[in-house]
Design brief:
Blueprint lengths: L2 H9 L5 E7 L5 E7 H11 L1 E4 L26 E6 L5 E2 L6 E9 L10 H14 L3 E13 L3 H6 L18 H5 L1 H12 L5 E6 L5 E6 L2 E2 H21 L3 E3 L13 E9 L2 E2 L2 E2 L4 E2 L1 H13 L29 E3 L6 E4 L6 E4 L8 H18 L24 H9 L2 H7 L1 H20 L3 H7 L4
Parallel strand pairs: 1-6, 16-17
Antiparallel strand pairs: 1-2, 3-4, 4-6, 5-6, 7-9, 7-10, 7-11, 7-12, 8-9, 12-13, 12-18, 14-15, 17-18
Length: 448
């Protein structure tokens, strides 16, 4: 949808509200709801504003100390929100409502470089100079529960009932029972400019996956954050709840966000050599540096404490750095051929901020083309059981240290951006280390 179409819909009375949003550090959409007429007459051209503390809050919306980009010392002023008309979408699950995603800008019109959308745009700008573009898709998994969000909150998220009593990977019976929700997700998201390919049951109880059609990186990241919001809102409407927590239960599989990527130039897939009908030199260079640097960039693939509990042997999440053709035990699974040939990054969980995860893959791969590293041969066998392969970081603390010390991260994102996300992660680690968990109470209350 474009601005002209939106204007026509507003004039016909079909759209009465426009949501003006931007993605925060955690990948959540935040913003304001405007009356459609006011959006059209004022916001579309001039934008709006939001308190810059939105880049310096934790999950609980508490403003945190130690940030340069926003702090008490500067008074937590405003940044500008500039609508990107290319992101305009009608929200079919919210009748009469449209949404536009904004860039977060300083008052002088320059991007706030620490903002997630800016981080991705910086990498895409570098690709454009090479006349290339990144085509991407993210596969989101989630758990569906037979309870509302409010009831789950009141129960302290204990004893929640998944929407199925048994594991449902590729099953049709149980997902059919949830078709009122899954069908609504497919139809209403597709009608909203988020074209859905399919939905399927996943490996664990109540776990589902819904796949969205691939697109250019920025459009795909915009689709991702809105799609995630849509799933939660549709589940809420139906009296259920959906969770994208990367590891909800010890005995069940985690929620992944596998990311597919290929590079294109002039409509041609740069990862495929059409003459040899085989993977290209560009692909092998790109993959070589993904393998080398992904542990250093893991903070952008797994940004929470919980994410690292997903990396377990035999869990469908990777634990070792290797690549292979159609092998689900490695970090990078390679699939397709010809125009569809691509790499699948299996490291990210459903908690990943897509703007940051996409940016990390592009930054690493772009460096690979520049460095011309030799790519190892594709791995054969079960990577879970091979200790000779490099391991993924085992905790948020380890990933944060690696990211802070990464020359690639410093060069690709800039020291201010690296410092910002390192500080964000360390605040989360500090909060977790100070929390008293149920595990500790069960372990130590009586027996110590």
């Amino acid at each position: 949808m474009n601005q002209k179409t939106l204007k026509q819909l507003i004039e016909r009375g079909e759209i009465h509200t426009v949501v003006v949003a931007f993605p925060d550090v955690l990948g959540r959409l935040v913003g304001k709801r405007f009356t459609a007429d006011f959006y059209l007459s004022q916001v579309a051209a001039h934008g709006t504003h939001a308190c810059n503390y939105l880049l310096a809050v934790n999950m609980e919306m508490d403003p945190q100390d130690g940030f340069q980009v926003a702090n008490w010392e500067s008074g937590f002023g405003d940044y500008e929100m500039k609508p990107d008309p290319a992101s305009l979408k009608i929200l079919a699950w919210q009748p009469g409502t449209a949404l536009v995603i904004c860039d977060y800008l300083h008052h002088n019109g320059k991007r706030v470089e620490e903002a997630p959308r800016s981080v991705l745009q910086h990498q895409l700008d570098a690709l454009k100079k090479k006349r290339s573009r990144a085509m991407m898709a993210s596969e989101l998994e989630f758990y569906l529960f037979d309870t509302t969000y409010s009831a789950a909150f009141d129960a302290d998220y204990r004893h929640l009932r998944p929407s199925s009593d048994y594991r449902i990977d590729y099953h049709l019976l149980q997902p059919g029972r949830d078709e009122n929700i899954l069908g609504s997700i497919r139809r209403e998201c597709s009608a909203s400019g988020i074209p859905v390919e399919c939905s399927k049951g996943e490996w664990s109880r109540g776990q589902h996956e819904v796949n969205v059609e691939y697109a250019e990186a920025l459009e795909m990241a915009d689709r991702h954050v809105l799609f995630k919001q849509a799933i939660k809102e549709i589940a809420h409407r139906e009296g259920k709840s959906a969770s994208f927590m990367p590891k909800f239960a010890e005995e069940e599989a985690g929620n992944s966000c596998h990311i597919h990527l290929s590079l294109q130039q002039g409509g041609k897939n740069l990862f495929w050599d059409s003459k040899k009908k085989a993977p290209s030199r560009v692909f092998h260079q790109f993959l070589a540096v993904l393998l080398k640097y992904s542990p250093e960039l893991c903070l952008f693939f797994a940004p929470t404490i919980n994410a690292y509990k997903r990396y377990q042997s035999g869990s469908w999440a990777p634990t070792r750095m290797a690549w292979s053709m159609d092998n689900r035990t490695v970090g990078f699974r390679v699939v397709g051929q010809g125009a569809s040939f691509r790499v699948e990054n299996r490291m990210p969980g459903a908690d990943a901020n897509p703007y940051l995860a996409f940016a990390a893959m592009i930054a690493a791969g772009k460096a690979g083309v520049d460095e011309s590293l030799d790519c190892p041969k594709d791995y054969k066998g079960n990577a879970y059981s091979d200790p000779s392969l490099p391991a993924l970081p085992s905790s948020l603390a380890e990933a944060t240290d690696l990211f802070e010390g990464s020359p690639l991260a410093q060069k690709a994102f800039g020291p201010e951006v690296v410092e910002f996300y390192v500080h964000t992660a360390r605040l989360e680690i500090q909060a977790y280390n100070q929390a008293i968990t149920d595990w500790e109470k069960r372990r130590y209350f009586e027996r110590i």
